[in-house]
Every structure is written in C-alpha cells, then in structure tokens.
Amino acid sequence: MIASETKPDNFTLACILRACSEQLNLEALKLVHGQVIVSDLGLDSITASALVSAYSKFGLVDDAKMVFDRLKNHDLVLHNTMITGYGSCGYWEKALNLFIMMRRIGNQPDGYTMVGLLSGLTCSSLLEIGQGIHGYCLRSGFDSNIHISSVLVSMYSRCGCMNSTYKVFSGLLHPDLVTWSALISGFSQSGEYHNALTSFKKMNSYGKKPDSVLVSILLAVTSQLAILAPGVELHGYAIRHCLHLEVMVSSALIDMYSKCGFLDLALKVFDEMPKRNIVSYNSVIASLGFYGLASEAFEVFHEVLNELLGMAGELDEAYELVNSLGEHVDSGIWGALLSCCDAHNDSKMAEIVSKRLLEGEQERSNYKIMVSNMFAGNGRWDDVKKLRDELDDVGHPQAASLKTVPLLFLELYAELFDENSASDEDDFFSNHTSETFTLPPPSVASPSCNPNKRLNPQLLDIELLVPHLIHLLVPPIKLLLLLMI
C-alpha cells in the first residue's frame, strides 16, 4: 500500500498501531510511528490516541505521555486513553491528577474515564481513594453502568474489602465471567476459601464455565483447604477442555497435589508439562522442599538455571539469581552457569563466574579444566598455562595428561580455524622448529570429523594431519576435541 499511490490515512494507521500492540511487536510499532510522522499525522487525535494506547500496553508510559503532550487540543477520547494507560501501568496518582486537570478544562468524564481510574487501584492502601471514586460514580449516575460495576467488584476485591465487593456484585443482574472471577479471587486472597468454593458452585449453576485463570484460582483454594476431591474434579475439567496444557493451570495442579499429600501425582503433572516457566519450577521446588527432598529440589534448580536462564541466554539474570543465594551456593550451580557462558560464548560473564567458582577452593580441579578450555578458546595462553600449572601442583590425575599437550598444538588449533590468519603453514611451522613435544598414546578411538567444518583455505594440507593428531588427544581435554566439531 505504501509503495502504491494510495496512502494510508489516520484510520488505517490507527488500525495498524492497534495490531502492533495486540501482537506485542514493539519494533513494528516504532516503525509505524515513524510512518505517522512522515505522513504528517502526528498531531491527529485518532492516530495520537492509538499511539498512546499502544505504548501504554507495552508499559512505556513516558513515550505515551510524550505523544499526548505534543497535541495542543486534548479531547475526551485522548484523555481517557492516557488515564487508562496510567491506570493499567499502576500510576494511579498520575491518572487521578490528569482526571482533575481534564475536569478543569471543561471535559466531563464518562464511564471509560471511571474504568481507567479504578483499574489503577490494586492494593488495600488505596481503598479510600476507590471509595471516593465510587461515590463520584453514584453522584454522577454511573452506578447503573454494568461495566463500571464489574470494575468496582474487581477494585474492592483487590483491596480486600469483601463486604463492599459482595454488595456491588449482588446488584448485578447478569455478572459475566470476569466479574465472577474477581469475586472468587477476592474470597481466595482474603482467606475465605469456603465462600470461594460456594461462589464457584453458584456460578456453575448459572451455566458459566471457568477459564484457565479461574481454574488456577480454584486449585489454589483447594490446596489451601487440602481437600483433594474438588481439586481432582477441576483437573478432570481442565483435561476435558485442554486447559491442563497451560502453564498456569499445571503449576496450580502441582501445588494442589503436593499440599494434599500426593507428591507423586504432582511430579507426574510436572513431567508431562509441554512447556515450563519459572512459576512451574517454583511449584515443584517448593513441593520437593515441603517433603524434605532437598537433593531433588537442587536438581530441579539446576534445570531452572540451564533451561530457563542459562540456555535462554539470560546470563545476567542467571548470575543475579545464583548470587542472591548467598555464600552457601553449591559449586555445581556455578559450574552449570559457567557451562551456559561457554555455550553462549560470553567471555565477560565467564570471567566473573570463574572467579567465583575458583576462589578459595583448590579441590575444584574439574572446573579449572573447564575454565582453562574457555581461556584457550579465546587465545589466552598465559592463563591456560597458569591453571595447568596449578593442577600439576595439587597433583590432579589429569594434570600429567594436560602437561604433555604443548602450547604449540593449542596454537595450531587456533591457527587452523582462524579464517583471518595471514600466515601460511610453512611460516607457522618455521617459527616453531625449536619446539619439541611428546603426547601419550591414544586411549580411545577418535570420533569422525565433521564434514561441514571449514578449515582455512590456506592450510588445506594440514587437514591431512588432523585425524592423526586427534588419535593422540586425551579425552578430558574439551578444547582439543573441538577440532572434530
């Protein structure tokens, strides 16, 4: 469309901006924002409202406010969008201030304004403010608005005022699933578990079917009551409606079964989960800890470190997590993190982790070998020699094998796979004619070389030597085995 003679107008761009926010595509949103500016529609109220709404959904309130401030005239729709953006991101005070300013310039609020204000009130300390907004709704005739009543139920529920929650809820003729969920969630968070189950049974009698969010809430209720029967019924419902595949529901099932005394069923749910997140791992770790299975809990923790953080590339977050555990962190955890650094070729983080792993622990020889291999991969031969000498000093069984592997061969490894190298094989060997070395006889058969691995075009003759040299390598030396990858 952009390439044609037909140019997008403000309505077209507003629809595209809405699609970007719904797809959570921030990069596309910024590109469309640029198109809005190029099309000279940056001061249009329709595109501005769409931009404010989109940036708010990403939590980028400052960017949304910047778009809002560029416009000289703010209509009710734009005010409501900005207030809703503040409310959805938890900036209730800014939403309230903008509401006051809006009234001062003559814009009268409507139901959407009230919904935006109420959505930002999320804790009991804001109950009085919520009651004040409720009072304004009553004086302004908004209390008959079903949507506002539903939001009031949610607000009172979040603030823990269940008497007001139930009073507003009772005034609704046909509460929707969201309103029922808010009521049941409020009872659950207030510790009124029997009222939560009673409300669910009443909701069921009206033909309302719970979604994954409500099923998770109800499973949490049954786990607090340690009543297995309703939990099993909810599990059956979740299976029939394919809700048990969602991480939220599976995590709640793990917690429910473990607290009801069926750890084996909790672990079975965990094993069958197609996808896991930090919540599901926390559930199973807490369950194992509850039963005193500390070693199994630490095994799962290792899996968290590798699968969720380390192997996902979130190395900074993984380091902060491990560091937060204090001084009694098992060396295996630091070792797992170091392996993740190696997998992602993050030498900076590997340096930090290796220092934590090796400090004051002479017996951690296996990790010194790992660090030595990483140093060698980065061409840090002096550090390789230093660690190798330390292993020899403490009498590590692999130290002798390591010592027989010369730096010449390690440098040869780097030369073979350095595509930017300017020297040829004759120059390389001529510079090392005085070096002599001996290697132990082969202990295992050599794996086959990877045919997809490309050697330096200038060193193709040396490729013939590689299979013979590989036969001389010692299995524990990870660096040299990389020749065959």
TrEMBL record:
GO terms for biological process: RNA modification. It comes from the Eukaryota. NCBIfam families: PPR. This is Pentatricopeptide repeat-containing protein. PPR repeats lie at residues 44-74, 75-109, 176-210, 246-280. It comes from Lactuca saligna. Pfam families: E_motif, PPR, PPR_2. Keywords: Repeat. PROSITE patterns: PPR. InterPro entries: E_motif (IPR046848), PPR_At4g14850-like_plant (IPR046960), PPR_rpt (IPR002885), TPR-like_helical_dom_sf (IPR011990). One of its GO terms (molecular function) is RNA binding.
